[in-house]
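User: Teach me something about this protein's shape.
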Amino acid sequence: MTDLFIEASAGTGKTYTIETMVLALLLRGIPIEKILAVTFTNASARELRRRIFDRITLELEILKASHDPRAEKLERSLLFFDMIRVFTLHGFAGAVLSEMAFETGFFPGAESPSHFEMREKLFRAIISELSTLSVGQLEKLLSHFKRNEERMIGEVASFVMLNPKITPVDSFDTLSDAFEKIARAIDPKELDHDVDLLRTHVKGLENRSHAIKEEVVQALDAIRCGSLPAFAGLSVSFLTCEPRAGKTFPALKTASSLFRLEEIAEKARSPHTTILCVATKLLHRLGKEKSEYGISDATLEQLQNAIGHPHVVAALQKKYDAVFIDEFQDTDPVQWNIFRTLFLGQKELFAVVGDPKQSIYAFRNADLSTYLRAKLSFTSTLSLTSNYRTARDVMERINVLFDEKNTPGLFTFQEDGSLSYSPVTAARTSDVGAKFRIVTVESAASYSTFNAFFAAHKEAIFTGVAGIVTQTIRDGALPSSICILVRTRKEAQEIADFLAGYAVRSAILSPTPLFATDSCTLVQSFLDCLLFPYNLAKLKRFLLHPYLGLSPVFHDDDLTPFMPLFQTLAILRDILPRRGMAVLWKHFLELSLKPIMDTTLEEVLSHDPARLDEVRQMIAVLLDTDLTLDRIAEFLKKGRKTIHNSSFLKKPFIEEQMVTISTMHMSKGLEFDTVIALGPSMRFQETIGIVRSENGEYGVAATLAQKKEAYEEKDREKLRLLYVSLTRCKSACYWFCFFAPIAKNPLGSFSPTELLLARFKRPYTSYEMLYSKMPPYGEILSTLHESGFSLIPVSTFAPALLPPGNAKRTAPFLPLPFKTEKQTLTSFSALFPSGPSSPVVAGSGDIPPGKEFGILMHFIFETLIEKEMYATRNEKVILSFIREAVKGTRFELYTDKIYSMCMAALRLPLFDGIPLVSIPPGCLFQEAEFGYADPVYGPVKGFADLVVFLPESIYLVDWKTNLLPDYRPETLNRAMEEHNYFDQAHIYARALSLSTRAFYKYADFDAAYKGAFFLFLRGLPDGVVHIPGGALSNV
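Assistant: First, the predicted structure itself:
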C-alpha cells in the first residue's frame, strides 16, 4: 500500500503524471472500474477524463504495433471506459449516498428537484428570514448593498451555500445589554480624566478652535447613558487616534472598558453581523433538509456522518483499488476528513496532487492550512521539479523572483518555511523569442491614492499594452497566443475598447452563464416545437431566432409550406423514447430547414463558430441532466429566470484572430505564449467583514487584531495570485510594475507586485513592518537591475495599427460629451423631415417604392455582411439567401432585380479602388450608433449604415432605395438636397470624427477620412454620390 503526496508547481505536468499513473495501474491488470479520481470542478473532471481516454488510446496503438500482449488489458479498459469513476467532490458524495442509500439513510425522491428549483427554494427561505429583521436592520443591510435587493439576497445565498460553521452570534438586543452593563460600570470621573488626557496627547478629538468635537461629546453621552444605538451611529474611536508630534499614546484607566465598548459597537454597526444572524437562523431552521435547498456542502456533511457507519467505510474501501485526488490545495477540513477516513493507508495507491502556491480560492472555502497539515500524514512525498511549459530564460527569472533565499518568508510573512518555493528546472530549451521583461511606469510626483496615480498614467499604460500586443502580432504571433491579465472585468473592457483603436480584436474571459445566452432560447424554442407539434406560432418563433438570421416575413397562417419541417420534427420527437437524448441532440444540429432554407441548422450556425460552440456547450449541459423532454423545457425556463447563477458557465470561444483578456483568477489552468501581466500591479483592499478562524468557524472581524490577521491572510493569497499570473506564460512575459510615491498605504492595500518587490532580496520583514517601511523605489529598481532583470520604460512600446482583418467586429457607442439626462437627443429623421420629393410613378418593371423596401434592403445588406456571406464570393449562396429573404413578401417577384442591385453594390471599386467583396469582415462596422452635441444641429443621435476602416483610410456608406426619374448627376444632387442628405453626411462625419479620435487612434482623422458614399441602389452603377472628406473638413 502506498500513500503518496505529490506537489506539482505550475507547468510541471500534474495531469500528465496522473494519467501516467492510471495507465501503469491498468497495465498491471487493475480494472478501470476500480480506479477513482476526484477533482474540484466539473470542467477539471471532464478534462481529466478526456486526457486519460486519449492516453489509453495512444498507448494501445503503440502496444498493438509492437504486438505487446498487454494490449488486451487496454482494449478492455477502453471497452469499459464509461465505468471509470471521475467525479467532482460533490459528485462523489452524491454517488456514494445514492448507491448506499440504506446504509447512509439518504433516500432521494424518485425525481430530485432541479438545481434551479433548489436555488429558488433557498431564495424564498432567505427572503422569509430577512423579513423578520427590524426596519433599521434591514435598512442598514440594504444600504450596504447600495439598495440592490437581488445582490443582497445573492450574497447571503452564496455564504449560506458554503454551509459554514458560525461562531455563536449575538443579537442586537444581546449586544445592547452587554454595552449598557459595561458602560454603567465605568466611573464617570475616570472617563472624564481619560478624555482630558487624550485631548492633550492625540489628534482627532478637537476642532480647530481646540474645543472638543460635537461628535465626541455625543459619544461620551452615549457611554454615560449606556446607549448602544447612539454610540454605534457615530464613527468615534478613542483607542485608534494618532498621537500628536512628540507625544505617545497615554495609559488610560478605562482602556479595557473602552476597548470592549468599541468592539461591541463595531459588531453592532456591521452589516455582516446581520448576515451572520440571518445565516445562523436559516441553517438551524433547515437542519437535515439543507441538501434540498442546494446547499452543496450539506451533501458532504451527510457523507461525513455516513462514514461513521463501519459497513459504509468497508464497502467503499473494497470498491476502489486506487484513488487520486487532484487540485488538493483547494480542500477544506471536512473534505480532508472524508478522504483520510476512507482511503489513507487503505489503498494500493492513494495519491493526492496539488500546489499550495496556486491556492487562490479562499472565497470558495479552500483552506491552505488543511493542505499543509494533511501533508504530514503521508508516508511518501514526490515533488515534480521539471517545468514543461515555460522557456528556460523565463523560468530562470521566475525562480529568482520566488526563491525563498532571495525573499525570506515570501508566501507566509514568517520564517518557519511552512510554505516555500522550490526552484524548478525548465525542460524546454529557450525559444528564440523567449523573454521576461519588467515594464516600468515611474513617476516622481507624489499621489494621495493609487487611484489618482493610475488615472494620471492610464493612457500611457494602455498605450504600452497596445504596443506590446501589436508588435507581437507583427512579429508573426497569432493574436490568440497573447493574454492580458487584469484584476477586474471593468479593466478588461477598458483595455478591449482601447485595443480596438489599433484594429486589435479581443475576447474577454468572463463567467457568463449559459442560460443568459441566445443558445438557451434557441434550444428552448426548438423544444417547444417538439412539445407542441404542428403549432405554427412556435415554429415561427424558432425560425425567427437571431442565431438563424431568417427573414421575418412569412406567408399567412397556411401550414402547407411548413409541412416537411413539421414532419421532420415529429420524427425527432419519436426518436427520443427509443434512442435517447444524445441521438436527439445529434439530429437537432443536423436538422434540415427545408423548405424555408436549403441548409441544415449546423451549417447556418457555422457561419459564426462562436455561436455553434455556444450551442454545443448548451447541449452538453442538457445531456448531463438526464431529464425528460418536458422536464428539460422546464429546466431551461427556470434557468432563464436565474441567469445570475454561476453553476453553468459558458466556456469562452477564442478565435485565432482574438487576443485574450482575463482576470488573474480566471487564468488559472490556462497557458499562453505571451502574457502581459497588468493585474498583479493593481492595488486593491478587500473589505474585512466576515472572517474564518483556525477552527473553521466564521465570525465578524470586530477588533483591530482580527482585521489585521484577516488582511495578512488576504495578502498571502495576493502573492499566490502573482505566482499564478506569471506562470501562465510559455515564451514571453511582460510584467508591468508601477513606481511612484503613494501617500496612503492602509493595511491590506498593497498590490501583489508591491508585496513581493518590497521584500525582494532584503532581510526578513514582518507583516507589520512591510506597510510602515516601504523601501524607496530607487532601491527596488537597482536591486532588480543587479539581479539581471530587463527593465523597460512603458514609453518604449509604441503601438501600430494592424493590417485589415484584425479589426474589432462591432463598433462601440460613440462618445457623448454631455449629460444626456439633461438634454434631448434628436434623431436625423426628426431633425430633417422628408422634403418635397419630386413625384415619380413606378413603371411596370420597377420595384414598388416605400419604406418597406428600404427596410428589406437594409436587412439584406446587414445579414450579408454580418454572416460574412458577401466575402465568400459565392453567388449561389447570396442568391439563395435573397430568395429566402423576399419569400412571402410583395417583392418576391423582383428577386432577380434585388440580387442584381446587391451584387452591383458589392462589386463597385469605391474604397481606394477596392470593392466591398474584397474587404475583410473585420474592417466593416455596421449600424454604428452615435450620439453627441453637434455645434450646429444640437444634440443628435442615429445609426450609420456602414463604416469602412482600412489601414490608412476611413469611409462612410449609406444605402438609399429612392425611386428617381433617372440617376444622372444633376438628378442625384437634387435628391440629396431635397432629403437633406448633405446634412446627414456632415452629422455622420462629425460623429465618426469623435469616435475615431476616442477609440481608433488614427494619427490624423482629417487625412484618413476619405468621405461618404451614398449608394442609390436602384440606379447602380451610376447611382453613386461621393462627398469627399475634404468637403467635410470643417466639421
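Now, about its shape. The chain has a mean pLDDT of 80. Residues 116-292 form one domain. If you'd like, I can walk through any region in more detail.
User: That's plenty for now, thanks!
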